Amino acid sequence: MPHLKRYAAPPCYSIPVKVKKFAPVIMGGGHPHDRAIPLRIILRDMLGYARNTREVKKIVSAGKVIVDGVVRKDDRFGVGVMDVISLPDVGVHFRVLPRKEKLVLVEIPEKEANIKLCRIMNKTVVRGGHIQLNLHDGRNILIRVKDPCNPVEDVYKTMDSLLISLPDQKILKHIKMEEGKIAMIYRGKRAGEMGKVEKIEIIRGFDPNRITLQTKKGCVTSPADYVFVVGDTTPEITIE
């Protein structure tokens, strides 16, 4: 079994280094391991619903934890940005959101527990000429089209966001990355800052494209890969 010492754990774990020697290693989940938290830490360290690993395992193995509408029975399963964690026995629902280099849990109403925002990371054309959208949390959605080269049918672009239902992942709304939309920085030291998209700069060369947001603290410029559009004029989900 792989081991991870606490001092080597990603900053998003938000656990004290000197209390214990080891931290759980993420097993499963679609998020990068340096931007995800295992359920064990969420239940024991962040929410306090368990005092130790044995109690966490009892809770999870009993099917009392639901992530994005699916029961998860491995306490090492990794959850990341925009994932929804539901605990039916206590009637609470949380969404995982970024705050600087850490991840936090924001309690959400029950009506939001079956929806989720996903960012389109890239697209591929699969067999039959259909388009596969590859999302930020590792899931894929197949868009069946007659001609993938027809811009009328291929309306989904990289950096756009999709509001989907859980767990069937039906597309409820398509939010384009455009000037005037509401977006959030979801990676890096400014993660969690949200504002209106003022400018999208396309950089020719090796440097990344840049997006400027008008936030409460002023204008902030971030690499385009770090920005997540969350609504047209207001966020589609609870962010704060």
Descriptive labels:
240 residues, mainly beta, Structural Genomics Hypothetical 15.5 Kd Protein In mrcA-pckA Intergenic Region, Chain A, OB fold (Dihydrolipoamide Acetyltransferase, E2P), 2 helices, 7% helix, 37% strand
Report on the architecture of this protein.
This protein has 240 residues and is mainly β. The protein has helices at 39-46, 53-61, and strands spanning 4-5, 22-23, 37-38, 66-67, 70-71, 78-79, 84-87, 92-99, 102-107, 115-125, 131-135, 140-143, 161-165, 171-175, 182-185, 194-201, 210-215, 218-223, 227-231. The protein has 3 domains: 4-112, RNA-binding S4 domain (Structural Genomics Hypothetical 15.5 Kd Protein In mrcA-pckA Intergenic Region, Chain A); 115-175, OB fold (Dihydrolipoamide Acetyltransferase, E2P) (Beta Barrel); 182-231, no CATH class. The protein contains 2 helices and 19 strands. The chain has a 5-stranded antiparallel beta sheet with strand order 5-4-7-8-9, with no helix packed on it. Strand 10 (115-125) and strand 11 (131-135) form a beta hairpin. Helix 1 packs across helix 2 (53-61). The longest helix is centred in the N-terminal third of the chain and has 9 residues, at 53-61. The radius of gyration is 19 Å and the shape is globular. The two termini are 37 Å apart.
Specify the structural class: mainly beta
Count of separate DSSP helical elements: 2
Global morphology: globular
Which CATH class of the largest domain? Alpha Beta
Mean pLDDT: 92
Query: CATH homologous superfamily of the largest domain - what is it?
Result: RNA-binding S4 domain
The figure for the number of domains is 3
* Radius of gyration (Å): 19 Å
Major beta sheet summary: 5 strands, antiparallel
Strand order of the largest sheet: 5-4-7-8-9
First and last CA, distance: 37 Å
CATH topology grouping of the largest domain = Structural Genomics Hypothetical 15.5 Kd Protein In mrcA-pckA Intergenic Region, Chain A
